[in-house]
# Entry
Amino acid sequence: MLIENEVDLLSRLKNVFGFSQFRGEQEEIINHLMSGNNTFVIMPTGAGKSMCYQLPAVSMEGTAIVISPLIALMKNQVDQMNAHGINAQVLNSTLNKTELSKVKKEVINGDVKLLYVAPESLCKEENIEFLKKAKISFVAIDEAHCISEWGHDFRPEYRKIRSIIDQLGNFPIIALTATATPKVQMDIQKNLRMEDASVFKSSFYRKNLYYEVRPKKDAKKQIIKFIKQNSGKSGIIYCLSRKKVEEIAELLKVNGIKALPYHAGLDSDVRMKNQDAFLNEEVDVIVATIAFGMGIDKPDVRYVIHYDVPKSLEGYYQETGRAGRDGIESKCIMFYSYRDILKLEKFNRDKTLTERENARHLLMEMTAFAESSICRVKQLLYYFGEHFDKNCGFCDNCLNPKESFEGKAEAQLALKAVELTEEKFGITHLANLLMGVENDYTRSYMMEAKEVFGKGKNHTAEFWSSIIRQLMLFEYLQKDIEEYGILKLTDKGRKFIKTPHSIKFYKDHDYTTDSDNDDGDSDAEHPKSYDPVLFELLKSLRKKVAKEKGVPPYVVFQDPSLEEMATVYPTTKEELSRINGVGSGKIAKFGKVFYEFIAKYVEEHNIETVNDVVVKNFVDRSNIKIFIIQQIDKKVRFEDIAEAKSISMQDLLQEIEHICYSGTKLNIDYYINELIEEDRQQEVIDYFMQAETDDIQVALKELGDEDYTEEELRLMRIKFLSEYAN
# Structure
């Protein structure tokens, strides 16, 4: 099976790959596989999984089949192998007929050392027949967690792999994954019929990664600011949907950041081009969908940001694992809102009952991780079945510990509930039992557990869930591997029931009060984040300028524009132009005095300006605005303009108002003169000149809703602002 009887692996490692020594258990794994043994490798991202099959493939006769779900990862690894002078090829949907024929010919001739195959391609009958003719050295199953229905990225095609391998012949299998909980590990081995395989499991601890969870409030602004503070460094941003990927990528570009999108909806050539641009450092940031994944093997990714909550802790760990693969300190930041969890639950509605239940468990774990104030590393390692007897001292929870409290009584109550229900309940049912909630589950143990039933009713379900999870982390409870979600007492937990002692618990984070949607889906009011002192000073300045110009204050700038100025401190003409509601007309007429005033305020108060946060939405509606302005210049009736763009009159008026508020002068006399008599027009103009506000409802009340319609007043407000403000 070997090219030589005694292969000098270390020499080959150095000569082919340029490494002078093996990492961790790599050498033992490689020797085990090359001796013809089935091998199961659980190794975190960045720890060198790929080498465990790449070096054997180079050292053994024949072609190694590498099954991988990610086209991006295949291309990336093939490029790397080819750069090392190794003939590696792909067999997936990206190949045309000519390319496919060439690859098959080279494999049959024995020229290819590694053939990367997508699971969908492996299942095709013509490919099975072709591979039967090839000399195969072994099969590597990368991202093996895709086999498990309990995993975070289940792929039905993966469950067919074993039967297809059996058709191809008898050779060793190496299964590799970066994310396998004990339950998933068992499922993988069972499906691949590798129960007797040697398991090599490396620690999941990545000491160079800083984990932080932030409330999803002003997330876009925070992201822009963070990236600009880390200018020139490579980063990945994960989003839940393709639409959000495109939106965030465009947002970054508008704010002067080199960024590109990456998702399955892009043409394959565009996707590959964007990936190469990131790898070649032509762009700093790649924005990708969580669902599609990346498969980018780039060692110097300095940060990974999750704009949306991932579907599981496995996915989160794998995606954050793309950061700092070179061992240098890197940051992993997740923006969390429970609304994201609810969205993900909605996406699961069409799944089968089993799939829905599995997905719900994964989301519960994700929620617990985000909201818990326990060391992030301790939580992650526990999830993957690894004990970590200290705090990392490096994550957000360790650096900013939450308030602790004595929990001896609560711990005893929770552990007693597990004991009295014969260790057959999970967190949700245990919490319900302690709170005295009657349902089919709690009633089934009403008599046995009457000692604890309802004894915790003064606390919420969230409180008891937190207590139970912390008891798991403190090793008083453990998960049942066979029955997902069920909790068992440990020896330590049984001892505590008999001899309770002092124990400290930590309060969870409460993100319900300080996070928002950041997508404009919510109408809820949020606390003002602007500088109140500057805001009041700007109002006074506006009043002074308005008096000098002989117009009402709101004509100069509206309150929302002043609030934004008091948030981001624009000190130049360019920065002021980014403020919503401030166009070139406004800047020309009123701008200089405002940005000079703000610059002086900033200098006097030694304020670090925040011009590196998002101050203007990227959404480009310039096309429709240009169309409207052109049509108004041509004196086209508003009804015809609305019809041409398939929008309502309400929407058209809103667009015209936006144009006007930004400082563009519009002459709509041709339209108004047909609707409103001259003396009535003057009455409204006189009203707006004296009014303290341009609010239409106030105007209707003052002028009389029997004499004027809301549409008439909106039109007159546009005329007034065009003549006096722009």
The longest strand covers residues 209-215. Residues 89 and 102 are 10 Å apart (CA to CA).
